[in-house]
Amino acid sequence: MTPTLVPETARAAAPVERIAGSYRDPAGFVYRRDGTVFRQIDETFAPEWDHFLDSGLYGRLAESSIVIRHEDADLSLAAEPPAYRVIQPEPIDVISFPYEWSFSQLQDAALLTLRAQALALEAGMTLRDASAYNVQFQRGRPLLIDSLSFERAQPGRPWVAYRQFCEHFLAPLALMARVDIRLGGLLRDHLEGIPLDLAARLLPGRTRFSFGLGPHIHLHARAQRQHADDNAGPQEDTTASMSPKRLATLIESLRDTVSGLSWEPAGTAWADYADNTSYDDEATAAKVAAVRGALTAIGGTRAWDLGANTGRYSRVAADAGYRVVALDIDPAAVERGYRAIRADGREDILPLLADITDPSPPLGWGSAERAGLLERIETDVILALALVHHLAIGSNVPLPMIASLFARLARDAIVEFVPKEDAMVQRLLAFREDVFADYTIEGFRDAFAPYFELVTETPIVGSARTVFHFRRRT
Amino acid sequence: MELIFAYIDPGSGSLIIQAVIAGLVAIPVLFRHQLARIVRTLRGREEPTSGSAHSAAAVDTANGQDDANTGA
Questions:
Q1: The complex's ipTM?
Q2: Per-residue pLDDT tens digits for A21-50
Q3: Residue ranges of A 95-154 with Cβ closer than 8 A to chain B
Q4: How many inter-chain contacts (A to B, CB under 8 Å) are there?
Q5: Residue by residue, what is the 3-state secondary structure of chain A?
Q6: Whole-prediction pTM value?
């Protein structure tokens, strides 16, 4: 972490902006002061926090990149004194949410959570929550960002976050793997996780007999229904029987169940797109060169690749020194992109699932708890390659509206125009009336002109396409 | 009798059924362990000839989880 050059007293005077999603846990909360993110730890949580550090658990988890690293900060930087401690966690590059993750991303986040719980149990601690929102992708891999999630284990006590784990991770993964990948979208409707009775109803009947989903979803849902009207204090029977060994077995079974679920990216509209484009090798090389040239000229560090597919041009941007978010609407493309960067150990590309025509809205308490996708885009450049025809013709978005949105997102835009005579556009128009009279390269230039200056315009040899580099007018 | 306090709602049904579920799943978990051990032993013997496809796949399933979990 970079040393702070601002005097502590000056920083302590800077206004505090509490992170909207950080309100549930009385043990502490996260806030921004002077642009830096801090976490305040409450006095009541002191014994748990000290144990987390002194037991060596934090060191072990941080060492293996399971839990976010932090540094101690001055107590005068507390947002609401008195605080027991103030810490400065490593900054997260891009915040993303579970409904924007591909199957394997959610699965890896689930396995990370279970790994943290297994290591915590070995150290005499336990996870007090298992929210998917406690995981973020950093340097290409999932990372637990809530340092306050650990408390000392009480002998015989069941895992209090078992329900949350099943609702946030196991239920959506099971629905995606065993019913339909698009059911991952249910997470957008259920910020507290997918209710187990709903998951149990939607899953195929035969999953009742599966070793993992049978107990963890079906039986679990039934028990919830049976005890829905219980008041506090019915737990005396169970506390005695949940031995450390049983607890470890439960975690191991969840791990087996989660890793036993799989989904192969095929059969969605775009799954084979990369093998099926209208580009030949010569044109591809020319397009890569045009994109790389523009990226180098911009000299930025952050790029968002809209409609990235499996991320071929995200890699071009990453190789040019950018940290890239590779957005795509297709779960199969995002899945393939994630698997590829995971296999290559790439740290500079984050594939995310999103629809440009319907980006994740602000959600939760006060419509502010989970920020909308567009609010989270902080970038030097957006790439929109082979995208505009899908927006303009596939989704009927007028070209000036596309230009206006792009101008909101970044100073520079690298945009490919695909004319009507291109086979891909012909496919979009195959069963449609052509109501797109303005969809010409001239109409495209005119639509972008009020928002952007044209920097370069590069026809792609061997194709009818053109790559534009625009810079926003100031 | 001990009350369980958590800042999230642990769900009374989830707490009560947990011990039962942990008991139920112990059998497949144990079975998996034994299977992995047998496969590892077999594979260990076969190592010089790179092992059969079946056992290699089974070991990958058993070990892959650990690898995936380290986050490294």
A1: 0.79
A2: 888 898 999 999 989 999 999 999 999 999
A3: 108, 111-112, 114-115, 128-129, 131, 141-143, 154
A4: 153
A5: CCCCCCCHHHHHHCCEEECCCCCCCCCEEEEEECCEEEEEECHHHHHHHHHHHHCCHHHHHHHCCCECCEEEECHHHCCCCCCCEEEEECCCCCCCCHHHCCHHHHHHHHHHHHHHHHHHHHCCEEECCCCHHHEEEECCEEEECCCCCEEECCCCCCCCCHHHHHHHHHHHHHHHHHCCHHHHHHHHHCCCCCCHHHHHHHCCHHHHHCCCHHHHHHHHHHHHHHCCCCCCCCCHHHHHHCCHHHHHHHHHHHHHHHHHCCCCCCCCCCCCHHHCCCCCHHHHHHHHHHHHHHHHHHCCCEEEEECCCCCHHHHHHHHCCCEEEEEECCHHHHHHHHHHHHHHCCCCEEEEECCCCCCCCCECHHHCCECCHHHHCCCCEEEECCCHHHHHHHCCCCHHHHHHHHHHHCCEEEEEECCCCCHHHHHHHCCCCCCCCCCCHHHHHHHHCCCEEEEEEEECCCCCCEEEEEEECC
A6: 0.89
